Amino acid sequence: MSLLNIEIKARCPDAKAIRSILQSRKADFKGIDHQVDTYFKVPFGRLKLREGNIENNLIYYDRENKEGPKQSNVVLFQSDPKSSLKEVLTKALGILVVVDKQREIYFIDNVKFHIDIVKQLGPFVEIEVIDSDGTLGKSKLLEQCQHYLDLFRIPEDDLISVSYSDLL
User: Fold this and answer.
1) Are 7 and 69 in contact (CB under 8 A)?
2) N vs C: which end of the chain shows fewer Cβ within 10 Å?
């Protein structure tokens, strides 16, 4: 499945405040997922295998590294955690880095929110505005992302331009 995604990642010194705003907006809480993302060595873009209790996917994405809302072009493949996919990818491509995190997952309509505690890095919040069928368009996604940036009062200094894999 291919989709268009506008996202931000930011340091999150006050996860309790973000959680409170999401709850007041009746966000759909999907649960807390312990996720291990294994990034593989690829010539361009990023390829990771996500292993979790809630989400298990092979994810390829291409995204520019810049602060603030940024576009990601994503291809998602739902994987079976019992398969040999990780072994095949490891042998064929080699592992670049492993990101281990606890992730709270919330949704409001087409917007996905993560409150993450990343081993060795600390607390973060992510906003992903998703157009899964091409009906919303980039400008609407940017508008939605900015709305939540403002609502959460995320200072520009807290925005992260790169992936957790780059930070590690």
Assistant:
1) yes
2) N
Short-list 59, 35, 34, CA closest to 47: 59
Per-residue pLDDT of 134-158, as tens digits, reads 788 889 999 999 999 999 999 999 9
Q: Which of 93, 96, 113 is nearest to 104 (CA)?
A: 113
The predicted-structure confidence for 77-114, as pLDDT tens digits, reads as follows: 999 989 999 999 999 999 999 999 999 999 999 999 99
CATH class of segment(s) 2-162 = mainly beta
Place of tokens 């996604």: 141
Question: What are the domain boundaries of the chain?
Answer: 2-162
* 21 Cβ neighbours under 8 A, 6+ residues apart: 151, 152
